[in-house]
Specification:
The chain has 19 helices and 12 strands. With 472 residues, it is α/β, with parallel strands linked by helices. It folds into 2 domains: 12-142 and 225-332, Aspartate Aminotransferase, domain 2; 336-471, Alpha-Beta Complex (Aspartate Aminotransferase, domain 1). Helix 10 (234-237) links the parallel strand 5 (226-229) and strand 6. Helix 5 packs parallel to helix 14 and helix 17 (395-405) packs across helix 19 (457-471). The structure holds pyridoxal-5'-phosphate. The site of pyridoxal-5'-phosphate has 16 residues, from helix 6 and helix 7.
């Protein structure tokens, strides 16, 4: 072999090795990864609890071997080469695992999935095209026509319309409960056909903190899973699976990415729900689209995860692109540094606004007594997150002037960016809701939502001070 062709061969081998490493996407673990873990990692890596959260932010989900890329590589390929049709057939019929087509799995995406799975403490994860795609994937893997969803009224606007209107077209009904209501009130809303309970760790933008003990007990008593949208808290502040949730979803677009570059989402399965309890024929009867596989029998450790990937991701197609997985994964590497600063800055701004004579009200869970109790119970380090809301004397007209006068913060339809953003939810994210629905979601007509960034807090306070002075 000539020198040139041997170099080319070596390069090709290195590329293939890199692809193999990312494909396996084994979790960082001090233990040697077992064969079982590698096989399962074709769907997602198994949890490895040995490393601290901060280390997992940086190294979880991808552990390169000798000579392989230090950074999770972007495998920008739709397809994967195989030598024999029998092997491909085994993959296609869920007898073996391996990437076949990037709509259902991809090595870069698998690395991101493995990392978030470790951060949330789950049994496996599926990345999706957006946070909305994650909610759609998680809920529609469970419900059928005629089923009922019981959801907290304080929800992101898109999730409310999905449950309230869009799923209704497919025969799935939803009812909404006040997350602060006592258990006996919420209990009354369960129906025989209720198949899941859904809530947000921190309601967007009502900012109610989910009482996991109350909701998980209710869901358990009715034999249905508790699904939690952890977007505004992130696993840094709260790990819902540890508090009785069964499935966690995140809009990775927000704090996980953290830099407002990429839309993405992720579903994490706790592997802690009994899908064979008689209420979920979707999991206990044969799936004719996969040669009659019965998910609860074939994949007893995590039937939800396998069904959602094999069936829902295949058919609905809401997959995450390798490029976005790479970018969001990069953002995740500083989640543990950014979240404390978001919380500190939000508390400082909330205190400043509370003392301001032209501010009519302020809502920040780190200031409210009832929310503070729940934060202390379920969150780490008493950090109540980076989102606050407030009202201004002069109402909507003053808000218009205030937003225009801001210099550091910007009017942006987004939360979770490292830069501070403000928004008027009633006319934007929740504009499709009636005023009554908005109030139930915790939205007032004069509400400004602030996603507090990680700038110098003195600059933020000065910016808000001058903008309020210009507006009121
Ligand atoms: C709490 C929450 N969940 C879900 C979503 C939807 O996420 P995405 O925009 O990534 O689809 C959002 C978006 O703002 C959100 O705030």
């Amino acid at each position: 072999m000539s020198k040139k062709s041997s170099a080319a061969a070596q390069k090709a081998k290195a590329t293939l090795d890199a692809a193999k490493t990312a494909r396996e996407a084994v979790s960082v673990s001090r233990k040697k990864s077992s064969k079982k873990t590698s096989a399962a990692s074709a769907v997602s890596a198994a949890p490895a609890a040995e490393l601290a959260f901060d280390t997992l932010c940086l190294q979880g989900g991808y552990s390169p071997k000798f000579g392989e890329p230090r950074v999770l590589p972007i495998i920008q390929s739709t397809t994967y080469k195989y030598d024999d049709i029998d092997h491909v057939n085994r993959i296609m019929t869920l007898q073996a695992f391996g990437h076949k087509y990037s709509r259902t799995s991809n090595p870069t995406v698998a690395g991101f999935e493995a990392r978030v799975n470790l951060l949330e403490g789950g049994a496996g994860a599926i990345a999706t095209a957006s946070g909305q795609a994650a909610t759609l994937l998680a809920t529609t893997a469970i419900v059928r026509e005629g089923d009922h969803i019981l959801a907290a009224s304080q929800l992101y606007g898109g999730t409310y319309t999905l449950f309230h209107s869009t799923l209704k077209r497919f025969g799935v009904r939803a009812s909404f409960f006040d997350p602060n209501a006592p258990a006996r009130e919420i209990e009354k809303l369960f129906r025989p056909e209720t198949r899941l309970v859904f809530g947000e760790t921190i309601g967007n933008p009502g900012l109610a903190i989910l009482d996991f003990g109350k909701l998980s007990a209710l869901a358990k008593a009715h034999g249905v899973p508790l699904i939690v949208d952890n977007t505004l808290a992130t696993p840094f502040l709260c790990q819902p699976l540890k508090h009785g949730a069964n499935i966690v979803i995140n809009s990775a677009t927000k704090y996980m990415d953290g830099h407002a570059t990429s839309v993405g989402g992720i579903v994490v399965d706790g592997g802690n729900f009994d899908w064979a309890n008689g209420l979920f024929p979707e999991f206990t009867s044969p799936d004719p689209t996969y040669n009659g596989v019965i998910y609860a029998e074939k994949f007893p450790a995590s039937p939800f995860l396998y069904k959602a990937r094999a069936q829902s991701l295949r058919d609905f197609g809401g997959c995450l692109s390798p490029m976005n997985a790479f970018l969001i994964n990069l953002g995740l590497e500083t989640l543990h540094l950014r979240m404390p600063r978001h919380g500190d800055n939000a508390l400082a701004l909330a205190k400043f606004l509370s003392a301001h004579p032209k501010v009519t009200w302020v809502n920040y869970p780190g200031l409210e007594t009832a929310s503070k109790k729940l934060v202390a119970r379920y969150f780490r380090k008493d950090n109540a997150g980076g989102i606050l809301t407030f009202g201004l004397k002069g109402g909507l007209d003053a808000i218009r002037r205030f937003v225009k006068a801001l210099k550091v913060a910007a009017l942006v339809v987004h939360v979770g960016d490292a830069r501070t953003s403000v928004l008027h939810p009633a006319s934007s994210t929740h504009a499709q809701l009636t005023e009554q629905e908005q109030r139930a979601a915790g939205i007032l007509p004069d509400m400004v939502r602030v996603s507090v960034g990680i700038e110098d807090p003195a600059d933020l306070i000065a910016d808000f001070e001058q903008a309020i002075a210009a507006a009121v």
